[in-house]
């Protein structure tokens, strides 16, 4: 017989045995086992194992027969699912067989490959019953053993929210038969048991079950009960020596969770049982910090009444007052301010005070309260911004007005300088807060205050094309010829953007049309470059120097217009007396530039106005030579004729 035939026969034998097991025919099973000389050593460790298969499928007499075969063998073997004979018998509530297995050496506290006891296995498979739990407790199951996640049977009973099972586990170990008999004996003998002695006895009983075991999340049974909001177990666990100040992996205590869950009754119970209200989590938040986040005034009152630290700062440096202002809980802010231990000027890690947060959120009622209690309105955060800045940026007119009224008018100029954006007036201009701008102007703030780029409110209004603001600032005496860090004037910016009406307005207020920037470019230069005909004419009509050169190549307005193919602009410049034969730093004339670019129409215009054809540049080339290089045949003919 070859190997394949032998394997086929073995498989057939197993199938035949399983068939017999299913038929519950003990005599035939015995005959089969004896005939095939089967013993535990050649039983496989799968679901087809005869003992395991019989426990799952056969009558007790057959199961007993196979147990007898294991007389001198280990009954604590397991298959790939982690099940042992005892696991399966208890899963099926076959306590008769369970008794036999235990008597034959099965270990009720056996831990399988998944680090599970039979109690944990039954809980996780949701196969636990009241009967099987009673059996396990009666036979000494160790409820303190945990699985790979660190969860004990007690914790699993809480996870699966079975009140009966949880109470049974705790009560069995605390109020077992021996303990009750001792109490009864004491009573019958009329012996006096002092409270201290009773408490000692109870403590001894409670120590039999470790309610403070932690799983990998740092959760004890008490924390699991609280997280699942199962208050009926909390007192039971606390009476069982549960650590009331235990912390999970986040460092949170039961009191912190009670506050976070807005559970007033639970919090009251925990405080009554001497829980620490000032414990903090890994984020440094206390119960009071969480209560202020949630906005529960009653919980805040309860915590403060029990000496919670009113100034505790979380990991971001936020105290309860700052948090309440950030979330806009007016009633809590008012309550905190009445506490004589409050540090009203505390700031967070960003340097922001409670007032700054109220201004950022636009809560004028909170801002009023803080000011009434004397908060410093001038505190700046790490970005050098204060309450005035944020009220302005967000457009909260009433809050800004309140802040300004709080200060002396003479001090208003001291508070509007900002490292990251200039004055409040600048911020209001950027965000087009017209109402706030008017308020600030009424308070006589510095209208020419500059930001880090040297830009004034007028400059920014010109860049944004906001003609109404430009007019407003000019009416209030803004410097029309102010220059920023690039030496650009408001007029140059208006001309760059093509805002002709703003340019006209600036000129009407005395803007110098011939001011130059850091590149020595004038308003006329940039207007010619962009091709804004109307603005070019406006500037020329108001005395702009038509031949003023600028830029790194020393271009005149007519050259820059030519380089950008602005025919009508060139025509206008010629009309106003532009030098048609002007040249740049390389000696190139307007005509040479037109020839290089192949601008036939402009060449015709220049020739019609007597441009000199054969002027040579620094490379000793004239317009004709450049046209030949580019092979512009029509332009060559035009120039030569």
Automatic annotation (TrEMBL):
Organism: Piromyces finnis
One GO process term, biological-process aspect: RNA processing
PANTHER family reported for this sequence: 2-5A-DEPENDENT RIBONUCLEASE (PTHR24141:SF1)
Molecular function in Gene Ontology: RNA binding; RNA nuclease activity
Keywords on record: ANK repeat, Repeat
ANK repeat start-end pairs: 81-113, 217-249, 250-282, 283-315, 350-382, 420-452, 453-485, 486-518, 519-551, 553-585
Pfam families according to UniProt: Ank (PF00023), Ank_2 (PF12796), Ank_5 (PF13857)
Name by which UniProt lists this protein: Ankyrin
